[in-house]
Amino acid sequence: MLQSCTSVLVLEDNVDDYLLLSIAVKKTALPVILHWVHSPSEALAYLHGEGPFSDRERYPFPCLFLTDLNIRIGTYSGLELIQKIRQTSRYKDLYIAVLSGSLDEHQIILVYEAGGTVFLNKTSAMNELISMMHGLLAQFCHTKATL
């Protein structure tokens, strides 16, 4: 039997987008907990269990990292952050879902080449977002990633 993982790390720099996402996740009725960070440096600190994220009881390692591709805060772009995460061998099995408002084919290819697991088109239509989140969470939060 697969062990479920309830921790999802979300990197989103837009408060409104995060609120929509969190409402959609809540409406899926799946037992997941979102941990929201605002910048690539915060995401890395969370993954490393450093600084304010050192308490793994409170901030468990996520089964899924959900990131906006077009991050406008910090030193890394969304693609650079994915590459940096994939350079760390202990994160090789971490599922990385990338949200973007663009369906540019070249951008999608770059996401997969950088190590993204899945590319999703950002939508503000709540029913679509709920359906998307339900499918994503059901697929990728079924087993616990361990370090």
Automatic annotation (TrEMBL):
Keywords tagged on the record: Phosphoprotein
Protein name: Response regulator receiver protein
InterPro entries: CheY-like_superfamily, Sig_transdc_resp-reg_receiver, TCS_response_regulator
GO biological process, one term: phosphorelay signal transduction system
PANTHER family given in the database record: RESPONSE REGULATOR RCP1-RELATED (PTHR44520), TWO-COMPONENT SYSTEM REGULATORY PROTEIN (PTHR44520:SF1)
Keyword check for Phosphoprotein: yes
Domain spans labelled Response regulatory: 7-137
Record carries keyword Protein transport: no
PROSITE patterns in the record: RESPONSE_REGULATORY
Positions of modified residues (4-aspartylphosphate): 68
